[in-house]
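Please check this.
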Amino acid sequence: MKVFVTGGAGYIGSHTCKSLKAAGHEPVTFDNLSTGHADLVRWGPLERGDIADRARVVAVLRQWKCEAILHFAASAYVGESTEAPLKYYANNVSGSISLFEAARDCGIDRIVFSSSCAVYGVPKELPITEESPKVPINPYGRSKLMVEQILADAATAYGMRVTALRYFNAAGADPDGEIGENHDPETHLIPIILQVAKGVRPAVSVFGTDHPTADGTCVRDYVHVSDLADAHVLALERLPRQSGFTAYNLGTGRGWSVRQIIEAARDMTGRPIRTIEEPKRNGDPPTLIANPTLAEKALGWQARRSGLQGVLDSAWRWQESDRRH
């Protein structure tokens, strides 16, 4: 089918476009390129525009006769969201409403939404299931939860078929080396660590060494970006067989601490990686680990590439590649 991919020039969106094409679908990327990169759009057309521009969205949906929407476009920096909350509610919530109205105008009732484990906040129990309490602790997480709630109501009222995919820590790069992670500014731990190994950065900051974890540093569930991409294709293809709203966690069920990631990167690269110990960040959960059982059963999804070595190796090859811009 022809699939309208908002934010398809971004990190996860571009990897998903590759997976869509491999599965026989045609991705139509819609991106304002505020944070995305046109050179990552390689498996279908690129249409420039903003999701808040309803008329432009409708025009592109009709031009390409799109049948479904994968919605990635969003502001996605947790720290920035606390400093500029209105920006996050405008882009992530108001922009999404405009997109969904355009979908209704065009008779599109199939949507896969890029959500986040940030909707859970600080979990009281681990691993986190889809039924765990949703108490987000920053505007970014709240904006994602709001959009989920809007979609659930839209599914009930208008008969839409909607799936929200709650990612844990996306990491790694395309195993073929064609595309990878290229944020500006970069805030994700693994590329920062590898930039230090490469000599692009002087050191990596470790925020908090007295968390209630085995080594005192934060623990996260890292899932390979290509596994996330595959989950979107599986969710998209399942939509005709479902009704209403569903949500799935995408993670591995295993956590790695900041110290463990740094040590593994030192071993893999054979290079020194200098660290600087910093105070804890407010609201940083000590441990986030997913229970991915529901996605495995309902979607037939497996985090096949998400072993730590595979994640680091693919990310390092991308860092070293001349294709990285």
In short: Residues 85-105 form the longest helix (21 residues). The mean pLDDT is 96. Residues 194 and 200 are 9 Å apart (CA to CA). The chain is about 40% helix and 20% strand.
